[in-house]
Design a protein that fits this description.
mainly alpha, 117 residues, 0% strand
Length: 117
């Protein structure tokens, strides 16, 4: 079982868990607006971390820390996006299917296909 499947299983189980015992359960209990707020926060933190990475290339230790920060913030963004999907009765595998369906299309072609749908 890959990480997406494992995490999906946990996130689904936490939908009905005690909010006092689980961060994810507390997000579900607070509702979609709170989940979306967290995605917004994580998106901003990811952008800031990405902006910091090129600025640190003169110092290898600083660059390594900036890289780890970017990876960590991106993981937080993906995680909270998965929480949102589960809250809306969507599965992360459905997103992967959309990406798979787009594979081999140019970005311009994919965007043109969406405009005609």
């Amino acid at each position: 079982m890959d990480i997406v499947e494992r995490l999906t299983t946990v996130l689904e189980a936490r939908r009905n868990a005690d909010p006092d015992s689980s961060y994810v359960a507390s997000l579900y209990q607070k509702g979609l607006d709170k989940i979306l707020e967290k995605i917004g926060e994580e998106a901003i933190e990811t952008i800031l971390a990405a902006k910091n990475l090129p600025a640190s290339d003169g110092d290898p230790q600083l660059a390594a820390r900036a890289r780890q920060e970017l990876l960590g913030e991106t993981a937080d963004l993906w995680f909270h996006s998965m929480v949102m999907l589960i809250a809306l009765d969507c599965r992360p595998e459905e997103v992967l299917k959309v990406l798979d369906d787009r594979f081999g299309l140019s970005g311009h072609e994919e965007k043109a296909n969406r405009a005609t749908d």
